[in-house]
């Protein structure tokens, strides 16, 4: 079951990322987002979570649904998240780094994020991020891990009826 959201906030050639202080992804750079609350849609969740974690109201910008990411871990369904992209204007002022209750927010260049052997990110991000940033269609991304090692990654363009 998918019970979380993740938002990638893009400004020019930078992404606003959060280095989380707690699990999941403790100590790694990631987008912002969180758990979907009861009776909340994924879109409502991502708007709320981004505002809580960054104080940015993404409703002031266009919010693009980019698909979903799910995992199988040691042959068990491990859930996943709905992923969104928000592009903010090049002149939008949001000085960083900022220390928050969740961790440290900072702008990172897309080149840095997608660079080879970048150990500051979870291993899934460089696999799905190019699709999120550069493809129009939403995708269904799936990762399979066995004993904490990524053994498979698959992706498909989502059917229209799956779009949230």
Automatic annotation (TrEMBL):
<dbReference type="GO" id="GO:0035539">
    <property type="term" value="F:8-oxo-7,8-dihydrodeoxyguanosine triphosphate pyrophosphatase activity"/>
</dbReference>
<dbReference type="InterPro" id="IPR000086">
    <property type="entry name" value="NUDIX_hydrolase_dom"/>
</dbReference>
<dbReference type="InterPro" id="IPR015797">
    <property type="entry name" value="NUDIX_hydrolase-like_dom_sf"/>
</dbReference>
<protein>
    <submittedName>
        <fullName>8-oxo-dGTP diphosphatase</fullName>
        <ecNumber>3.6.1.55</ecNumber>
    </submittedName>
</protein>
<dbReference type="Pfam" id="PF00293">
    <property type="entry name" value="NUDIX"/>
</dbReference>
<feature type="domain" description="Nudix hydrolase">
    <location>
        <begin position="1"/>
        <end position="134"/>
    </location>
</feature>
<keyword id="KW-0378">Hydrolase</keyword>
């Amino acid at each position: 079951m998918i019970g979380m959201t993740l938002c990638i906030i893009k400004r020019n050639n930078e992404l606003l990322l959060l280095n989380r202080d707690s699990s999941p992804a403790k100590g790694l750079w990631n987008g912002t987002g969180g758990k979907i609350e009861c009776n909340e849609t994924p879109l409502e969740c991502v708007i709320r979570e981004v505002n809580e974690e960054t104080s940015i109201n993404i409703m002031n910008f266009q919010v693009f649904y980019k698909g979903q990411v799910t995992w199988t871990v040691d042959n068990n369904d491990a859930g996943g998240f709905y992923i969104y992209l928000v592009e903010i204007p090049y002149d939008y002022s949001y000085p960083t780094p900022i220390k928050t209750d969740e961790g440290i927010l900072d702008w990172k260049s897309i080149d840095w994020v997608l660079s080879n052997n970048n150990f500051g990110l979870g291993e899934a991000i460089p696999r799905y991020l190019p699709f999120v940033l550069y493809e129009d269609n939403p995708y269904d991304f799936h990762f399979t891990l066995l004993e904490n090692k990524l053994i498979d990654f698959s992706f498909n363009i989502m059917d229209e009826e799956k779009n949230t």
